[in-house]
Design brief:
alpha/beta; homotetramer; 7-stranded mixed beta sheet; 281 residues; globular; Alpha-Beta Plaits; 4-stranded antiparallel beta sheet; Rossmann fold
């Protein structure tokens, strides 16, 4: 028996669930978890389910899914639950998001392979070493920005990377890159978007005298800080706190929020729905 | 077309979902929302789903469900979504939970009929009057406790009450009453259970110097403060705050937590699973 | 013996605290609580302290304070703690903020006199009646907006109102009015400012797919939604929730946040510091 | 000019603040921050203040403080703000609390010297190495428990340690040790005390079906899990989560709560007040 994760989305129509669950039942699979959502606004249907089934029935099931996919014009993905995805992490000088991600991997909370960590600075190299992950130092100047991006692309392709995580990378990726890996790049923005877009969000928040600050993880699109939001978290501040303290408090929730978003995306629980996300659980 | 809510639970076995969804599909129903959970510990399966269907197919669907129920030894309930349940509120002197429940009803957040409000004191009578709900004053002494409980039972039976809400009722109901309406009585306890059971939980919390206080809504069983927890919420306090302030801060979250639990139970989203609850969404 | 509340602010200089506390000591007063903050950015000093003292020493203390005020060019206010301030509430159709404020007053959490409630609609009249507070219905059209504002001003002046609370008033007050009562008008904005300014913030939040929504209480200035923030609170939402649900969830925190801000301002714990606030405790 | 931190507590009496602030003023010191609290229950007074002053006036100030201390029977401590305290960390196999503490030190949020990390297991050795902190491996058996405690005591005395932090140490210290370092040992308990004392709190929480779990940092006394609470934090869970997930979610807040408590204690913001704490800010 093997455990499978199915992820499916299409324009909402009657009978999608019964068709899929019947196919699984006919192939002697047993559904262990099912999440489903129909967006009345975008008229889109989203489904995630896990089931256990004898491997020998897989080809028969895939045959059923083929006709379902065609009939409903459905995006569908099926994977073995234990099979780890591959994730590339891009970071800069600040290590807190990287440390937290790697610690979550060590604890077993995030199940993933990390073939490489890339940075434009050397500061995080010892952290990568401690976790025995190859570290690539690609320093960036105005002149070599595109070449370095090409090197990152090479790493992605060579390693069959499923997910690219910007763990406070601080560099703006080219529109071409963003387009090519749309839905596969996760960023952590150090503000409660759309509150303080752009640079120095903690300074903006401090200047405005807000009483709560936040962090936002989102998919990267070519429009800066405008991609679909995956996860947000907030923390209370007051007049006593300096910008430096905002930054330090923020560091904690940036790390938490990014790790939470990464975990959910790796577990196939997040769908892009226009400029929003459907995030199960 | 009519919208239906189905709630089902049984011992976990393969094919439950596909059987139910296929029955709905065969009767031309369209599933609009589905939540499902299998408890690995208790080996119990829980399902809530909503679907729309032509009324003329209802008898055919019920016929299918009959055999499913028998086959899986399933507890199953089906109701029309718009059909309001009936709820009895018991309160004492403190009005904050009552006010919040009635305000949520007025806003449309809680959809329910309230045939009666019962209290052992007259303090809340004007609130009931403002919302045009019959108010019954059943004063309680050591001598008449059982007679008054009999009056409450009479109200419940006459009005076909589905849910009994203790909105800070401050009276301990008899084991017989608790047993008779098991799974139908919701209480709000003014502490973060199991933290401070029994009387004066805010005093207990203050004496212990805790930095966070809470409130807990739970189903009532004959064991005091030990029934399945539906919903909890917490709020931060500090050394500045007196017991009186603990009580006032607590009042806000008691009201919120009780209203949230009531809403979820009315919407058939809460299942009892041993001494825990499965609470969808 | 009488309890006093002192509130003082001025440009930061050495020896302010020792001068004030020595004056109180010399007049046999006993300090029971003291909060102090120096803003390094604006170079401003803020002090709130409570003390008990024999009334017969008051004139001597005021004499000392006179020279301190002149020396430090200080804004200073002294009041008897039990003496209630006067507050005017403006509301529109939605009652939830009004109900919560009046309930907090009833519980004793907010200690204040409310000489009048004003609304451009009649919906909240029964709530005012239930709490025995005079209700003034000033319907507003494009033509009579300024006359109605004049009526409000009259009520404020006649009743020596200290604080004007916009409990979801939904009307924009004139710049003249805002200027005249600067630092005395509190609004509740139904978003996590500066996130979604202007109209329909919940719709804006829903369209953007945020995972947390909020409410903000702030002092009103002539620039819409830009006044100093007093208090903010957030609540988690997800893709399941409609705009209507955002509005209902938001209602709870709007009421909480406004009541919290009102309480702090009435207790002299909030200072305006440029476009921010210093909010003690 | 030097910055000083003063911490004082005594039985509450009139004129404490004015006497202390006048002494500072007479020595040309300037108060930059002041927090004060009088506990009406225990009748105790607590004061923390920071001031800047020319070093040459220090002996004169200390002379004034001597008579104040005697007059009020006051516990008083004065230190130079930049002078770092010394902290010993005890840990076991689980590294998450240790990692977070060291990361906060690296970020500059916690300003402290750590002369040694002690553990009964070798798992955390590479983390200590990465941060260049001496690591002492003192394995513990039933037989050598007291000898190993003696080694820890030796480290404490040799290094003039101010604070001992149990970062998930998992060993019960002897009553003699607890007594000797009373008020100097901080523990993190992985539950929302007093909710689930003793072993396996997450299992206890899971069995009870709670909807929120927590972590508590407290001073260690010889009574297990009963010392004064410094800081608490909670996180929401639901029926989906296994005990293992409770443990992982808990790990995040344990780390946060312990680091927050350590920071506050190092900054002299926490006073013990009977079996509670007064924790400023």
């Amino acid at each position: 028996m093997e455990n499978y994760v199915l992820k499916a989305s299409c324009r909402d129509k009657p009978h999608i669930i019964s068709q899929i669950t019947a196919s699984i039942a006919q192939n002697e699979g047993n559904i262990t978890d099912l999440d489903q959502y129909s967006d009345k606004g975008t008229q889109h249907f989203f489904l995630r389910l896990t089931f256990s089934m004898d491997e020998k029935n897989l080809s028969s099931l895939l045959f059923s899914f083929k006709s379902i996919r065609e009939f409903f014009d459905m995006e569908i993905s099926l994977r073995i639950e234990n099979q780890k995805k591959k994730m590339l992490i891009l970071c800069s000088k600040q290590p807190h998001c990287l440390i937290h991600l790697l610690e979550k991997k060590r604890q077993g909370a995030i199940s993933v392979d990390i073939p490489a960590i890339v940075s434009n600075h050397k500061d995080c190299e010892p952290i990568a070493a401690y976790h025995h992950i190859p570290f690539h130092h690609f320093p960036i100047s105005k002149e070599n920005k595109m070449e370095q991006e090409a090197l990152i692309e090479e790493l992605i392709e060579q390693n069959h990377v499923d997910l690219i995580v910007l763990a406070r990378y601080m560099q703006i990726l080219s529109p071409t890159f963003c387009k090519k890996y749309e839905g596969k790049i996760i960023n952590i923005h150090h503000s409660f978007l759309p509150g303080f877009k752009g640079a120095n969000p903690y300074k903006q928040a401090h200047d405005r005298g807000v009483k709560i600050i936040g962090a936002t993880s989102h998919f990267v699109t070519s429009e800066l800080d405008e991609g679909p939001i995956i996860c947000q978290e907030t923390i209370r501040v007051n007049h006593h706190h300096s910008i430096e303290e905002f930054i330090r408090f923020g560091a904690d929730i940036e790390a938490l929020v990014l790790a939470r978003a990464v975990k959910h995306v790796l577990e196939d629980k997040v769908f892009i729905d226009g400029n929003k996300t459907v995030a199960f659980k």
